[in-house]
Each structure stands twice: as structure tokens, then as C-alpha cells.
Amino acid sequence: MRMSDIITRRILDLLEESEENIAEIQRNELAALVGCAPSQINYVISSRFTPEHGYIVESRRGGGGYIKITRI
To answer: Considering the entire predicted model, what is its pTM?
Structure first.
């Protein structure tokens, strides 16, 4: 399985676990969890979690920053 597929599956798992269809992730934590570079997280989110695919992505930078993915 490719790294991008592993990242996608992990994000989809988080969405499925949420009652509100929202996954909040910290890029560095997810990268460490799956064993990849944080830039790979950005690539997967920008290419697979788009409005065309039924997702809204919000991000907040900084020390308490996060990426919030909502399934619409």
C-alpha cells in the first residue's frame, strides 16, 4: 500500500469515528504516526480531500495549529 493511501485511510478512519463527520488533525502528529514527512500530509489533503470530493478543509497555523476536515 502506498504512503498516500495509508494517510488517506487514517483520515477516513478519523472521519468515520466522529459523529459530526469532522476530523481535526495536527500535521506533525499524523506524520509521526504513519511515518512520513509532514509535506506528504499536505499533498494528500490537497489532492484527495477537496470540495469536489465532498470535503471542506480548514487550517490554522501556529503552535496550536490544526487541520480540520469536514465531510459534506
So the answer is: 0.89
Q: List per-residue pLDDT tens for the chain, 72 residues long.
A: 899 999 999 999 999 999 999 999 999 999 999 999 999 999 999 999 999 999 999 998 877 679 999 999
Q: Would you state the cell numbers that stand for residue 6, as one nine-digit string?
A: 495509508
Burial 8-47, CB ≥16 within 10 A → b, else e: bebbeeebeeeeeeebebebeebbeeeebeeebbeebbee
- HSE-CB for 41 with a 13 A CA cutoff: 22
